Amino acid sequence: MASTKTKALPILIGLAVLAVLGFAGFRYWQGPVAPAYQIEAAPLVQRVVATGRVVSTSRTQVGSEITGVVQERRVKEGDTVQPGDVLITLKADDLEAKVREAESALEQLQTARRPQAQAALRQAESQLAQATREAQRRRELYQSQSISREIKEQAEHQQTTARAVAEQARLLAESLAVGGSEEDILTHRLAAARAALAKTQIRAEQPGVVLTRNAEPGDQVQPGKVLLEIARTGDTEVLVPVDERNLGVLALGQPAICIPDAYLQAPFDARVTFIAPTIDPQKGTVDVRLRVDPVPPNLRQDMTVSANIETGRRDKTLAVPNDALFDLSGETAKVWRVEGGKSHAVSVKLGLRGTTMTEILSGLSTGDWVLAGKTGTEGQRVRVFKLDKPMENNRQATRKETPVKMN
Fold first, then answer.
1. Which of 124, 135, 117 is nearest to 166 (CA)?
2. What is the CATH topology of the domain spanning 33-57+236-407?
3. What are the pLDDT digits (tens) for 152-168?
4. For residue 126, what are the contacts with CB-CB under 8 A and spacing of at least 6?
């Protein structure tokens, strides 16, 4: 009995070895294990990812229209200003004196010179009337030969002189009258003096936030020097330089999700409102402006922002992860498709290209397997190991990723 068992043991061991060798051989024949994706229909979003900065649609550079010395600066960086707010005050002793001088001249016209001119006109008119009567009487006496020609001519000369004096008085009274030329000159002189004085108070023209200040009390300022820079309140944009290779998929009105580098957990919505008509030849980029509305309270000027611009969307389409594509050329590429346990290079036509997935318009069908990592050998036997597809994530912009190149 023991002899029989002893003889059967080598046979069993041999069979086990053969089974192991057979299984190993079968596995070798099947090929190595390779990670792969199974093609399925799913939603797909195409995005262009870039980094930009927050900018105001309008920045105001505030300066002085006159030369002067800063007496007071009433604002600092970060202050919010409204139209009419006084920002900087300049010393104005000489201009205040000119205003008082102009006011005094106008008051003197109204209270002294005008009444005097009117009184002088009345006196000249009275003297003219008297001289006219006297000349008429002398002419009558001359006609009756009661007086000589010389006396008559003297009376007529006095009448002419009185008429000239009356005319001068009338012209002076008219120039000094209400609404006359003299009052007009003095009124404009006073207005000019007041306008010059008003320029010593530099005021805000638009609502906004003070970004920079370049003046302190005691500084000498001149026209043309920028004293303050103010970002206009209201429209805020994100200026994004985008690689020119993505220009073909950009369009006005496209939505975007922006994430400030300083507040990664506070993304905000934006929309494409401007695409520059020119390309930066040095950087190979095109400037894109994204309108932000509403503006988050934590957003600041020149803040770095990562922008995900949605350039296309499919509710359901065949797509493969980008790491499965190789030999990209325009709208075509290749993938390693596993069919019958063997890998084959297959050409596919591409559609939308997302940050992690690309749409396949032709060349693959639902349920097909493609190798990950772009590595494979034509006709090689492989055993697929299913990988989960990468998920599209709006926060990918925080990692400064870029989509598949739009060649």
1. 124
2. Elongation Factor Tu (Ef-tu); domain 3 (2.40.30)
3. 888 889 989 989 988 99
4. none
